[in-house]
């Protein structure tokens, strides 16, 4: 942390935490509803974040962000992520896209879009998973991008479970530009403006009742040559880099939400009175508190270790796989325990626990299911050990 010492980060984290708790928490149900009211409310929160000096903290300062390095931002990401709406309200949501386009976008793309992404005037989404193709098998991607006679590309295919596609101005799409299904080479990433002819939002896909995921279609969408992200046919290199940062950020946010569920559970245990005294005096409630605290205390270091490696630009596949899986499980576990302590009140609309539990459950599937990360991490560990003992 060259520019941000520990004291400065701690103070900023407290300010962010206060903003999310006092301003964002109480607006969550309205933000969840979508529509014009939600957009107006989101913009008001953004203006308040800008006025408070909390806007886009990890984004490049030369583009209007706070310029905070990733290792310093880790604890801020956890505080922002205590609400699903925190990153968008505070302007950090496009961090993964800004990082990707800054490193791999053409000069025209960087000039045309980066400032708008940082300011919040432009929104992006990422389309990788397809209805008829396993999300864990990108080599089987069926969406295709063909070379046009006059230059550029024509994209045809369908994607689903694309977050925030309805409000996005651009979508980064994974498409096959050469070879056949199963080939490692031949996949490319293209940045597609959503106003392009042939682009269509097919339908919304509520996830356990929650909005925000969509199915989209590309019907011969024309894309300029300079909207290729990275090299043609080498998408997996860029996608891997993107996924490592994206999964680590989400893991940090899930830890923030798990901490929120834990705090609610402890408050409930202390305040709820029965004929035998407060819930906090009951051993089974104490066990819920202990197990939840153990999960948090063992998960948080894994996630911060992953972020430190990602910030240094080092290979972090094992650490990110551990962090993503542990954080998703911890959020589901802690939220479930909190619901149990709350009883029927934890199932209703008066607490955020149903949403936190839903997020925890979906986190174990979206962005790579547990099984994928378990297998991937184990293979890497076993292969590295075998290589270490095999004579040259």
From TrEMBL:
Keyword terms, alphabetized: FAD, Flavoprotein, Oxidoreductase
Organism from which the protein derives: Streptomyces nymphaeiformis
Q: Which residues form the Acyl-CoA oxidase/dehydrogenase middle domain?
A: 125-221
Q: Which Pfam families match?
A: Acyl-CoA_dh_1 (PF00441), Acyl-CoA_dh_M (PF02770), Acyl-CoA_dh_N (PF02771)
- Member of which family? Belongs to the acyl-CoA dehydrogenase family.
Q: What cofactor does this one take?
A: FAD
Q: Does the keyword Manganese apply?
A: no
What cellular component terms from Gene Ontology apply here?
cytoplasm
Name-wise, this protein is Alkylation response protein AidB-like acyl-CoA dehydrogenase
- Alphabetical list of CDD domains matching this protein: ACAD
Instruction: Name the PANTHER family for this protein.
Output: ACYL-COA DEHYDROGENASE FAMILY MEMBER 11, MEDIUM-CHAIN SPECIFIC ACYL-COA DEHYDROGENASE, MITOCHONDRIAL-RELATED
Q: Acyl-CoA dehydrogenase/oxidase C-terminal domain location, by residue?
A: 236-382
**Which molecular-function annotations from GO does this UniProt entry contain?**
acyl-CoA dehydrogenase activity; flavin adenine dinucleotide binding
Which GO terms are recorded in the biological process aspect for this UniProt protein?
fatty acid beta-oxidation using acyl-CoA dehydrogenase
InterPro entries according to UniProt: Acyl-CoA_dehydrogenase (IPR050741), Acyl-CoA_Oxase/DH_mid-dom (IPR006091), Acyl-CoA_Oxase/DH_mid-dom_sf (IPR046373), AcylCo_DH-like_C (IPR036250), AcylCo_DH/oxidase_C (IPR009075), AcylCoA_DH/ox_N (IPR013786), AcylCoA_DH/ox_N_sf (IPR037069), AcylCoA_DH/oxidase_NM_dom_sf (IPR009100)
């Amino acid at each position: 942390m060259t520019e941000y010492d520990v004291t400065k980060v701690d103070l900023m984290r407290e300010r962010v935490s206060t903003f999310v708790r006092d301003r964002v928490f109480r607006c969550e149900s309205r933000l969840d509803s979508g529509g014009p009211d939600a957009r107006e409310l989101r913009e008001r929160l953004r203006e308040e974040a800008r006025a408070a000096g909390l806007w886009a903290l990890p984004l490049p300062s030369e583009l209007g962000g706070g310029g905070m390095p990733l290792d310093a931002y880790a604890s801020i990401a956890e505080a922002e992520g205590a609400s699903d709406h925190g990153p968008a309200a505070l302007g950090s949501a496009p961090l993964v896209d800004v990082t990707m386009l800054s490193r791999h976008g053409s000069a025209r793309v960087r000039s045309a879009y980066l400032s708008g992404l940082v300011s919040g005037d432009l929104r992006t989404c990422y389309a990788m998973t397809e209805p008829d193709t396993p999300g864990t098998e990108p080599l089987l991607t069926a969406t295709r991008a063909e070379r046009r006679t006059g230059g550029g590309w024509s994209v045809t295919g369908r994607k689903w479970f694309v977050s925030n596609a309805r409000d996005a101005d651009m979508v980064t799409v994974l498409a096959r530009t050469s070879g056949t299904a199963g080939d490692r080479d031949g996949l490319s990433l293209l940045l597609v403006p959503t106003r392009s002819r042939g682009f269509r939002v097919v339908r919304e896909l509520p996830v356990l009742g929650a909005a925000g995921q969509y199915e989209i279609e590309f019907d011969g969408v024309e894309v300029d040559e300079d909207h290729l992200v990275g090299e043609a046919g080498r998408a997996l290199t860029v996608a891997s880099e993107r996924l490592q940062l994206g999964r680590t950020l989400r893991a940090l946010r899930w830890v923030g939400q798990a901490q929120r569920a834990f705090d609610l559970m402890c408050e409930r245990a202390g305040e709820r009175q029965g004929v035998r005294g407060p819930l906090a005096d009951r051993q089974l409630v104490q066990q819920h508190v202990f197990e939840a605290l153990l999960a948090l205390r063992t998960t948080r270091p894994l996630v911060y270790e992953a972020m430190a490696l990602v910030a240094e630009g080092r290979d972090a596949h094992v650490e990110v796989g551990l962090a993503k899986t542990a954080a998703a499980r911890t959020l589901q576990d802690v939220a479930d325990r909190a619901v149990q302590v709350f009883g029927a009140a934890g199932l209703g609309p008066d607490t955020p626990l149903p949403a936190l539990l839903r997020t925890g459950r979906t986190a174990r599937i979206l962005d790579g299911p547990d099984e994928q990360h378990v297998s991937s991490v184990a293979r890497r560990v076993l292969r590295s050990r075998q290589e270490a003992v095999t004579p040259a």
